What does this fold into?
Amino acid sequence: MATEVVVKVKDISAGYMKQPVLDKVSFAINKGEMVGLIGPNGAGKSTLLKTMRGFLPVLTGLVEINGRKVQELTAHDFACQVGYLQQYAEIAFGYTAKEIVLAGRYPHLKWWQKESAKDWKIVRACMEYTGVLDLADKTMHAISGGQRQRVLLAKVLAQQTPILFLDEPTTGLDVFYQEEIFWFCQNMCRAGKTVIMVVHELALAARFCSRIILVGNGGVIANGSADEVLTEEHLSQAYGVTVKVVKNPLTGNIEVFTVHADRDISMERLLYRIDAVNTVTNECQSEEQFR
Amino acid sequence: MKKMTVFFPLLFVCFFIISLISLSWGQIDIPFENILAMLCHELHIPLFADVPFTPEQQAVLYHIRMPRTLVGLLVGAGLGASGAVMQGIFSNPLADPGIIGVSSGASVGAVIAIALGLTELSMFYMPLFAFAGALLAVTLTVFLAMRHGRIPVMTLLLSGVVVGMLLGAMTSGILTMMNEQKMQQYLFWTIGGLDYRRWEHVFLAVGPICGGIGVMLLMARHLNILVLGDVEAKAVGMPVMPFRLFLLIIASLTTATGVCVSGNIGFVGLVVPHMMRMLVGPDHRRLLPASIIAGGTFLVLCDTIGRIIMPPIEIRVGVMTAVLGTPYFLYLLRRTRNMSR
It folds into this structure.
């Protein structure tokens, strides 16, 4: 299969208020890839994704979506190319799940048009795929976090875009829901879509993603397959702590954990001091009461 | 969906009955059948032809009741629709047209017109000044909130508060320099009322309010997207800023027109859309029509009650909307605290 570059990032610096968080970032993503963006909190994963989606300005360098510069894409063109799931979408008012998914059809309608039977069919199919069809008439307030995320994923799917950007789609979900979201994405990539997602679960990323990009220290530290990227050296460098990576011989999955000294006397001493402050103030109070 | 097939006809029935009551009740009661007979006679509909009516009844209906009821319906419908749109723009169920300075701007305009003694020259000066003041206030609010070609919702709210305070202070300042008679005139205006409304008021209001409502109805589906917030709306390809600005202007124009023919009337723009959202849900394609009909009906109902509660004194409609609106709103808030956001 000939590889086809759908997202190209070349030498960009990105950040808020002209303060670059990332500098000289370059990579290219091919059609059908499932890419996990990982890195410590505040490293700039979301910033990178937002810049690629055109929500933040490209300070220097070049971002291309299907061969077109992001600055040249209109809001409508962009929405037809890229679906975007934001980190935490607060939904005002009591919209029902199906009304939210229907919003994904917006870029495909002219401004005076009404949703047709075809649009409703797509909405239905998307909700069926993410398993939320039975929640269609529930309001977004009345459903759990895991279900909510699946409804929002259905909305992004209903946009029928070849590329999907997902910003922490699994944060705050319990393990099985997390795995499910990854699994949905993997299937979508097999069907020819390209998914780029910001994730924190390194083990799940290693299992499902076809490629992992590790962001840290103001740039990309590593870019490649899970085995290439998730090394002790790379992770220790990115997260600033000593990290061990172990491959589980039974499942073949990766386990990542930090290494501490067994017992840290200075930490314990600090804890003692916190409690000590408490007893001292209590004494003072009781002394005052005595007088 | 089944609920809707019952709800909208029911709303229409309420609308007709309350309009009819408003035309009928007052210091001179005109029986329903006489009103229908006069209307049918005028419109050349061969119904109620055998019901007699007097020229006196005809005069009361045409020159007093009808303009009053029509202004009430128009203003109520305009306030209901603008309220729903504002709540949508701000994604906040507690927003109303007053929040971006429409009413405080109109007050300044009105107080200037009174202070300059223009109100004695023509009845049109006050509405025109109020309208200009309202537009000026909204422009100022939007201008203050604009940063790097964007209008963040929070900044817009805050600059609305600031502009409201500034204009409120100006109004108070001018008021303290006026004589008692002028002050009372202002007070009368500021508590909105529908008394002595004439056909001129109807003609003044009908164009802008109906136009505004029409545009808002056309934008209903887009409003549904805008409510989801900046990022969601942009993600599905909506140019957020132009849409928000456009809807803001339309809602302000509609409200300003209402304020200019009937004075400041609070609570309709806040309570009615809120109430309708509970009944028909947040989809603006149902919410807007419901708010429009219910807004008109509610305002006329308040006016009618204010008129008949202790004759011959009339309680002004601005007072009645607040008196009826506040308890209901509190009830809603307490009942659905977890649902409203």
